[in-house]
Specification:
CATH topology of the largest domain: Fumarylacetoacetate hydrolase, domain 2
Order of helices and strands: EEEHEEEHEEEEEEEHEHEEHEEE
Radius of gyration: 18 Å
Number of strands: 19
Number of domains: 2
Shape: globular
Structural class: mainly beta
Oligomer: single chain
Length: 278
């Protein structure tokens, strides 16, 4: 199944499942959870139903998880990206955090801030946690996934490189695109040979199979849950392939008017224009 979060025409927010050009408004059902995160927490994704249908064109999509408790991101998790950045090989995933208030939805603009023109693309597969836990065994880790989404970890590179800590360059407002939908593992199927593809203005700039991850999904979940409890609705962005704009000659920065797309096979396509900060 594929789930979305959205704002209705009257300004209220809800969540539901996609049915072609329509949304089954699960939030309209009597006694329904208040949002997608609450539905995941209740373990109700497979059982919720509703008779209310809304035209997809008549609602405004939100980040598929508008309110995650945690957003954990994995750096340099494809060998091609590690090599282009010159980073040393490591024995453990490189983890940094992103704030929930940086998230935007499919169709919303990624914002190039006034503070920099060095705005880069990073197409990624995002995991959404379904069953929480601490010190989750690697052998059990995949069963803790509620679903997958596309992510664009748009990065303000000069701010990222001010020091060895990534956080400033990864947390400008309007730079974390998440969506358009959450696809459950049964519908996603085996993702090993599925490619993470990023396109900028119609040109392919990143293209690599998920199987090329240095640290696979189960290891990422096991490692992160060893140092912090994972909760339903937490998001883990699993890293970007090589081809980022910063490592091209000359650098390829995103600018106002650009269109950036992240496509991951059955997970869908996340599309965002780029705009300058007002």
């Amino acid at each position: 199944m594929a789930f979305v979060s959205f704002r209705r025409a009257d300004g209220s927010t809800s969540f539901g499942t996609l049915d072609g050009d329509w949304i089954v408004d699960l939030g309209a059902a009597p006694g329904a959870p208040v949002d997608l995160k609450a539905a995941i927490t209740a373990g109700a994704l497979a059982t919720l139903t509703s008779d209310t249908h809304l035209a997809l064109a008549k609602v405004t999509l939100l980040p598929v998880l508008p309110n995650p408790g945690k957003i954990l991101c994995v750096g340099h998790n494809y060998e091609s990206h590690r090599q282009e950045t010159g980073r040393a090989k490591v024995d453990h995933p490189s983890i940094f955090t992103r704030f929930a208030d940086t998230l935007i939805a499919h169709g919303q603009p990624i914002i190039r801030p006034k503070a920099s023109t060095d705005l880069d693309f990073e197409g990624e597969l995002a995991i959404v946690i379904g069953t929480g836990g601490r010190a989750i065994a690697e052998a059990d880790a995949l069963s803790h996934i509620a679903g997958f989404a596309c992510f664009n970890d748009a990065s303000v590179r000069d701010w990222q490189w001010h020091t060895s800590q990534f956080a400033p360059g990864k947390n400008f407002p309007g730079t974390g695109a998440l969506g358009p939908q959450l696809v459950t593992p049964d519908e996603a199927g085996d993702l090993a040979d599925v490619h993470v593809v990023t396109m900028l203005n119609g040109d392919v700039v990143q293209d690599q199979p998920i199987s090329d991850m240095i640290f696979p999904l189960a290891k990422i979940i096991a490692y992160t849950s060893a140092f912090t409890p994972l909760a339903p609705g937490d998001v883990i962005a699993t890293g970007t392939p090589g081809g980022v704009g910063a490592k091209r000659t000359p650098p390829l920065w995103m600018k106002a008017g650009d269109i950036v797309e992240v496509t991951i096979g059955p997970i869908g396509t996340l599309t965002n224009p780029v705009a300058d900060e007002p």
